[in-house]
Amino acid sequence: MRLILFGPPGVGKGTQAKILSSSMQIPHISTGDMLREAVSRGTDLGKKAKAVMDAGQLVSDDIMIGIIREVLASERCSAGFILDGFPRTVPQAEALTKVLADLRVHLDAVLNLEIKDAAVIERLSKRVTCRQCGRIYNLAIDHLPDPLRCPNCGGELFQRDDDKPETVQKRLLVYAKSTSPVKEYYRKTGILFDIDAAGTVDQVNLDIRKALGQRL
Questions:
Q1: Which residues of the chain have pLDDT under 50?
Q2: Given this model, what pLDDT does residue 33 score?
Q3: Residue 160 a catalytic site member
Q4: CATH superfamily, domain at 2-26+79-213
């Protein structure tokens, strides 16, 4: 299957993507992963992206679409993919539609994970990251023996600025403004499914599978 995962920060996209990727044997492709891979491989587009990022600027749509085209056309994605973090705007969605048409493949579903802003703020305000190994934990559900130390490597746990309540609120406003038109773009195609992401991981995954069952 070829899927897009939508949802605000803290909604659980990464968790669901890992579960689906493992069970369906298709790659989970995030925008960040694609950029890092292109840069590390030293492709022409990767070099352009690195120059832009080193200058502290945002990678242009043209470069990003080029990188996505290369990834989706690769053998890795021949059986399907889960695209996470792209598209973020209607022009990006339109460009992706053209790429898929050129590759003669189609999207099976766009999964829109939804949750109330207050719940997102509550979730992220309890999220901590290890400075040493980078693992992320939630103090409310992971029951760490020491809330200041990573149980994996012993590194210091800290809260990223991005996860502080005032920053999360701003991120949610940006998300709502930029992605609402994209959701409507896909809703018109009949392949967008709204998923209540407020439940447990298992319940959300079950709801996703029910939605995907309608596309099989």
A1: none
A2: 81
A3: yes
A4: P-loop containing nucleotide triphosphate hydrolases (3.40.50.300)
For residue 155, count other CB atoms closer than 10 A to its CB. Answer: 16
Catalytic annotation present for 13: yes
Let me know if 2 is a catalytic residue.
no
- Kindly report the number of other CB atoms within 10 A of residue 40's CB atom: 10
Q: Please pick, among 50, 88, 135, 187, the residue that the annotation labels catalytic.
A: 88
41 catalytic? Reply is no
Q: What is the pLDDT of residues 89-117, one digit of tens each?
A: 899 999 999 999 999 999 999 999 999 99
Per-residue pLDDT of 4-36, as tens digits, reads: 999 888 888 888 998 999 999 999 998 888 888
The backbone torsions φ and ψ at residue 146, rounded to the nearest 5 degrees and listed phi first, read -135, 110
Q: What confidence score (pLDDT) does residue 179 get?
A: 85
Please report, for the chain, the start and end positions of each structural domain, with discontinuous segments joined by +: 2-26+79-213
First vs last Cα of the chain: how many Å apart?
Answer: 9
Q: Which residues contact 31 (CB under 8 A, 6 or more apart)?
A: 64, 84, 85, 86
Q: Is 104 known to be catalytic?
A: no
The amino acid that residue 18 corresponds to is: K
